[in-house]
Amino acid sequence: MIAHDCELERHDGRKRLELSFQAALASEYKGATQKIRILTEHWVSSQVYCPNCGHVSITQYKNNSPVADFFCSNCREDYELKGYKRAFGTKVVDGAYRTMMERLSASNNPNLLLMEYDHIRLEVRSLSVIPKQFFIPDIIEKRKPLSSGARRAGWVGCNIRLSTIPNAGRIVLIKNGIVESPKDVIAKWRQTLFLRHQKDLRSKGWLLSIMGCIDKIQNRTFLLHDLYGFEQELMAIYPENRHIRPKIRQQLQVLRDMGYLIFLGNGTYQLAAPTGQNAPMEQDTASTESM
Ligand SMILES: [Zn+2]
Questions:
Q1: Which whole number is the average pLDDT over 163-184?
Q2: How many Å lie between the centroid of ligand 1 and the Cα of residue 63?
Q3: In the chain, is it the N or the C terminus that has fewer CB atoms within a 10 Å radius of its CB?
Q4: Using CB atoms within 10 A of its CB, is residue 50 exposed (0-12), middle (13-18) or buried (19+)?
Q5: Model pLDDT for residues 227-279, shown as the tens digit of each residue
Q6: 192-291 fold
Q7: Is 60 strand, coil or helix?
């Protein structure tokens, strides 16, 4: 499974992870945007481990690959980096809307690394990763086309609606300068790999909706009755579905079968602790790159 325990332990010694950028690297670059891009990209390739397999580092693609910014040389996962100098709110701005929508069903859709940095102190504040299996059309929001006066008039960008992604799909590596244990990060990552086997985006949408409802209960243990409380909300998302309650029960069964939930009996459920044990083995995930 995770073949890099010794490498992980190096990461677990928290002193090793350096949050500061190497400012000298950007001295020969002129623009502020270019400088920060150089610094953040260098920081990722020198400090960030692969959350999929635990490999000690991820490698930057050369020559501005259109596919992704980084890849893992061990498991071949792809990562895209988005850096922001402010804390993200409920949504973040991403690239072209059409490209994002086309990528959703492509095999090379990358995982998204979201970084918040301090541009005065030149250091990372927070870093999280959204695994690619959480990207469905519902989370991509079309922006207004750029106005006719703009250099790229008519170009349509998109936002990623972070607020619609279940907690399990927003994996924190660093928060406000505090580094999370890589073992916990990898366990959380593995807990939702089952979603990659869900090829139909609509079916996956249902699972993600139910996971989001469970988050809103804000309790690891909950009742079927609690989830029925979201019936109206789900009906608004899936107006063509006339059988919301049976659908909720069916989705809970899928989540139980995948090890995401535990049935305690009498209509009581519990979120499973992320251990990664129920996730597909590494060779399985390598052969199911598409989503
Ligand atoms: Zn890897």
A1: 95
A2: 21
A3: N
A4: buried
A5: 999 999 999 999 999 999 999 999 999 999 999 999 999 999 999 988 755 44
A6: Arc Repressor Mutant, subunit A (1.10.10)
A7: strand
Q: Which of 55, 94, 193 is nearest to 134 (CA)?
A: 193
* CA 36–ligand 1 middle distance (angstroms): 25
Distance from Cα 58 to the centre of ligand 1, integer Å? 7
Strands 157-161 and 221-223 turn out to be unpaired
pLDDT at 276: 56
Domain ranges of the chain: 192-291
pLDDT at 157: 93
**Could you tell me the distance, in angstroms and rounded to a whole number, from the CA of residue 271 to the centre of ligand 1?**
26
Rg (CA), the chain: 20
Cα(99) to centroid of ligand 1, in Å?
A: 25
Angle at which helices 5-12 and 182-191 pack, to 10 degrees? 120
Ligand 1 geometric centre to CA of 8 (Å): 12
Q: What is the rounded average pLDDT of the residues 76-94?
A: 90
Distance 172 CA to ligand 1 centre (A): 17
Per-residue pLDDT, averaged over 21-34, amounts to 92
pTM summary value: 0.86
| 285 close to 52: Cβ distance less than 8 angstroms | yes
**Rounded Cα–Cα distance for residues 139 and 271 (Å):** 23
Residue type, 49: Y
Tokens describing residue 246: 């049976």
Among 37-41, 90-94, 162-166, the least confident range: 90-94
Q: Which of 92, 136, 132, 83 is nearest to 108 (CA)?
A: 132
